């Protein structure tokens, strides 16, 4: 399992590089521009993948070499992380082939796996102060996928014209409502971990920038919703961090 996780972490940036070179078909940027939505983020926002892949690889190396008290707990998170990495790689291949329904199923499955792995890491005891080496990459990856899954859903709607594409605001607002439930709920389950919150905020700011300059009807409203959600998530994260600090202070005082 250790080696498989390491190989999966290596496969993600390799396939991403080949995908950007058009080896499997149009890359994600080209296809996203072909199917514009009111939830699309600015192109620069997708640069976060480089950081995600680098940290995932660091995590894979760490877990492969790690010995000691954390090993049993890590064994519980490894299968979910492995599945999340493999599914992330599969999504890049499938999306380039314009198999959008399959890509949508894959990205939501990848999100479920990585959220599960991150949640397991968040609940582990950390006697040696090492858990950040796992929770940082998994939280960041899960955070970006949390928003990317919603954006991918909107693209599928547009690609197959499942709902009106001339006036996308009504159904886009419904997707924003789903996004709010997902993002705030996951953030709470991860106890407001900064890595998860950062990835989501990064993406939401990207949406604000993209939609503020878009000519699509309803784009400014969508930008406002994204900005409001970002403010809400930031406030929730600060509150959760403060509450965790208070609990730790109370525990220390009791001792």
TrEMBL record:
Top-level taxon of the source organism: Bacteria
Keywords attached to this entry: Membrane, Transmembrane, Transmembrane helix
Bilayer-spanning residue ranges: 38-65, 77-94, 100-120, 132-162, 168-186, 193-209, 221-240
Keyword presence, Transmembrane: yes
Keyword check for Transmembrane helix: yes
PANTHER family named among the record's database cross-references: SI:CH211-161H7.5-RELATED (PTHR33802), XK-RELATED PROTEIN (PTHR33802:SF1)
Annotated protein name in UniProt: TspO/MBR related protein
Organism, as annotated: Roseateles violae
């Amino acid at each position: 399992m250790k080696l498989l996780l390491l190989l999966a972490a290596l496969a993600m940036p390799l396939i991403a590089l080949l995908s950007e070179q058009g080896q499997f078909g149009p890359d994600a940027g080209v296809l996203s521009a072909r199917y514009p939505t009111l939830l699309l983020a600015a192109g620069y926002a997708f640069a976060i993948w480089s950081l995600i892949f680098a940290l995932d690889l660091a995590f894979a190396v760490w877990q492969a070499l790690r010995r000691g008290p954390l090993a049993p707990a890590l064994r519980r998170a490894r299968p979910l992380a492995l599945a999340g990495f493999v599914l992330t790689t599969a999504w890049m291949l499938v999306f380039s082939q314009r198999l959008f329904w399959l890509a949508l199923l894959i990205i939501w499955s990848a999100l479920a796996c990585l959220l599960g792995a991150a949640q397991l890491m968040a609940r582990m005891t950390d006697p040696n102060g090492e858990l950040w080496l796992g929770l940082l990459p998994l939280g960041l990856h899960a955070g970006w996928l949390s928003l990317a899954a919603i954006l991918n859903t909107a693209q599928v709607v547009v690609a197959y014209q499942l709902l009106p594409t001339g006036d996308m605001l009504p159904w886009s607002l419904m997707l924003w409502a789903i996004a709010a439930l997902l993002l705030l709920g996951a953030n709470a389950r991860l106890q407001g971990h900064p890595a998860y919150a950062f990835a989501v905020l990064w993406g939401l700011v990207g949406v604000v920038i993209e939609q503020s300059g878009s000519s699509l009807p309803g784009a400014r409203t969508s930008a406002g919703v994204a900005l409001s959600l970002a403010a809400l998530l930031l406030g929730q994260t600060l509150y959760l961090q403060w509450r965790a600090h208070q609990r730790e202070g109370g525990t220390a005082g009791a001792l």
